[in-house]
Design a protein that fits this description.
- There is one protein chain.
- By secondary structure, the protein is of the alpha+beta class.
- The protein has 5 helices and 13 strands.
- It has a domain at 5-156: Roll (2,3-Dihydroxybiphenyl 1,2-Dioxygenase, domain 1), CATH 3.10.180.
- Helix content is 14%, strand content 32%.
- The strands form 3 sheets. The protein has a 6-stranded mixed sheet. Strands 10-9-11-12-13 form a 5-stranded mixed sheet, with no helix packed on it. It has a two-stranded antiparallel ribbon with strand order 6-7.
- A hairpin with a 4-residue loop joins β2 and β3.
- The chain is globular, with a radius of gyration of 16 Å.
- The mean pLDDT is 95.
- Residues 6-77 form the Glyoxalase-like domain.
- InterPro entries: Glyas_Bleomycin-R_OHBP_Dase (IPR029068), Glyoxalase-like_dom (IPR025870).
């Protein structure tokens, strides 16, 4: 679909894993990846640590306030269940696009957003077993940001682009919905339907693949 681009991918992780000596930070550092920015999401109970590439970024999302999380409008999409995915079996993944979100959606406004800014969330995300799919309020890719958040992207390691190579789902996405549109537009290269733990295979171009949520290279 014209104008539809991958903005970022998130995965829920434990807060301790995002610390300087946390397991995931060290594992990603061993690959040459450098953290680009972090942010606290007020009114949502979460914070993140992000790794920007030229076209998109990888977001490690974690809970910092359980009560705030449970009170968030994102409860409609089972955000608390997603954060606790190891026990609930929910999908820990989120996929965000730049451009109009295809399919039916609902509107979310975070207290941190500037006036008039909101995001569209696919109704497919109402099922916690499916990824959290939404539009980004941003219009530019990290290589075009002017606020310094992207840092050097991942030029030191030689990685240029973030891609979704394969997404494993418990069932086929609805025809005409956001996930179906992402697949047809090439944002998701392959859909795999299988039972078991959710899995997302991302590409770090030109030559590395990373399996989420295990963060194992393949």
């Amino acid at each position: 679909m014209a104008g539809l681009e991958l903005d970022h991918v998130f995965v829920f992780v434990d807060e301790a894993e995002t610390k300087p000596k946390g397991g995931l930070v060290e594992r990603l550092s061993a690959l040459g990846l450098e953290p680009s920015f972090m942010r606290r999401h007020m009114g949502q109970g979460t914070a993140n640590l992000c790794y920007a590439l030229d076209n998109a970024y990888l977001e490690l999302l974690h809970v910092v306030d359980e009560d705030e999380l449970k009170a968030s409008p994102l409860g409609r999409a089972g955000f608390a269940e997603r954060a606790n995915w190891r026990k609930t079996g929910a999908s820990p993944f989120g996929i965000s696009c730049r451009g109009a979100l295809p399919g039916e959606s609902w509107t979310y406004r975070n207290p941190d957003f500037p006036p008039g800014v909101s995001i569209a969330i696919s109704v497919e995300s109402d099922d916690p077993a499916m990824p959290f799919v939404f539009s980004s309020p941003g219009k530019a890719q990290p290589s075009e940001w002017t606020d310094g958040r992207a840092g050097r992207q991942q030029t030191a390691a030689g990685f240029t682009r973030l891609t979704i190579e394969r997404l494993t789902l418990p069932r086929l996405p609805a025809a005409g919905g956001a996930l179906d549109a992402f697949h047809r537009a090439g944002l998701i290269k392959e859909l795999d339907i299988a039972e078991g733990e959710p899995e997302l295979l991302i590409g770090l171009e030109p030559d590395r693949r990373l399996r989420l949520p295990s963060f194992m290279t393949v």
